[in-house]
Amino acid sequence: MKSILIFLLMPFMLLAQIKKDSIKVFYLGGQSNMEGFGYVKNLPDSLKKKNKDFFIYHGNSVVDNDVTGGLGKWDVLQPGHGTGFSSDGKTNQLSDRFGVELSLAKKLQELYPNQKLAFIKYARNGSSIDSTGTTSFGAWEPDFKGGKGMNQYDYFLKTVHNAMAVKDINGDGVEDVLIPSGIIWMQGESDADKTEAIANQYYSNLKRLMDLMRATFRNNDLPIVIGKISDSGDIEGGKVWKFGELVQYNQEKFAATQPNVAIVRTTNSYKYSDRYHYDNNGFIDLGKQFATKIFLLNTKNTKNSKKASLN
Question: Which helix (H) or strand (E) holds 158?
Fold first, then answer.
């Protein structure tokens, strides 16, 4: 009788053992307006609390050639993942700032009501893609060889590899399968304030970087949404980014010519907390815009896949 009972229960036991959770994961990257300069104290009540159903792996943001770059650990999403956040890989230290992640998560949960979701974030204040004009803030140039040869691209790789290697990101005892579902990129200001040549190279630099990021997630058609840079005009002469129009042109070119890419343009209407960074309402709206754009790209891909399977 006991052997018959075990035989009958075995399929259910096997199903329990192989149960896995599918989690859509989105990468957030770029420079300061992705890092986040909103003030937590001024958040609306709807975004002030922990989002217990949303997890984030936030890589430690540092200058080039710092071995602590990219260290992080999975944690529940809450305010404090803006500039000043840090991690030693064991403990996360929240800051008093936030970025697009809070409103982005809230909007994505509305768009994907029955789907588990997560972020991987690594962004660096003041960073450029082109290393020829980089300052102390750092660069994303993949072939960077300065100093110890470590830069923002290396920290991106470390952040992503360490995050994706974790098999149970929420500690519920069920293995998690992380499904890369998009790259969200807000950057370009630091390639717009140095030389005309660097600004003119932004399209090719951005394309190469995004191609490599897609390859890191093993999906050459992974959806990408970029934020169009804007200018506060809060400087004598009225232009903070001397070659901003060239970078904007190259961002538009990238969105228009590359597959599965969208661009957010509402940044030109945002107010600023200083001459470089959006105010709280700007970060909140930008998160919502990013969510809508990345959702539409993924929805389009799903429809195309269904059509292809029918043909």
Answer: helix 152-165
This prediction's pTM:
0.92
Residue carrying the six token digits 């809230």: 106
In angstroms, rounded to a whole number, what is the distance separating the alpha carbons of residues 191 and 251?
12
Per-residue confidence (pLDDT) for residue 15, from 0 to 100: 47
Task: Determine the pLDDT at residue 5.
Answer: 45
Alpha-carbon gap, residue 19 to 145, rounded angstroms: 44
Amino acid at 10: M
In this prediction, the residues of the chain whose per-residue pLDDT falls under 70 are: 1-18, 302-311
Q: How far, in Å, CA of 88 to CA of 90, rounded?
A: 5
pLDDT computed for residue 302 by the predictor: 67
First-residue to last-residue Cα distance in the chain: 52
Q: Cα dist. 8→11, 13, 18, 31 in Å? A: 7, 10, 17, 57
Q: Tell me how far apart the alpha carbons of residues 13 and 6 are, in angstroms, rounded to a whole number.
A: 9
Give the pLDDT confidence score for residue 71 in this predicted structure: 98
Give the separation between CA 151 and CA 84, rounded to whole angstroms.
19
Specify the pLDDT at position 3. Answer: 55
Q: Match 């300065």 to its residue by tokens.
A: 146
Rounded Cα distance, 221 and 217, in Å: 10
Instruction: Provide the pLDDT for residue 134.
Output: 73
* Cα 294 to Cα 263: distance, rounded to the nearest angstrom: 10
What whole-number distance in Å separates Cα of residue 213 and Cα of residue 220? 9
Contact 263, 244 (CB under 8 A): no
For 247-253, the CB contacts below 8 A with 24+ separation are 247/188, 247/189, 247/191, 247/192, 247/199, 247/202, 248/188, 250/199, 250/200, 250/202, 250/203, 250/206, 251/188, 251/202, 251/206, 251/226, 252/228, 253/203
Rounded Cα distance, 127 and 135, in Å: 8
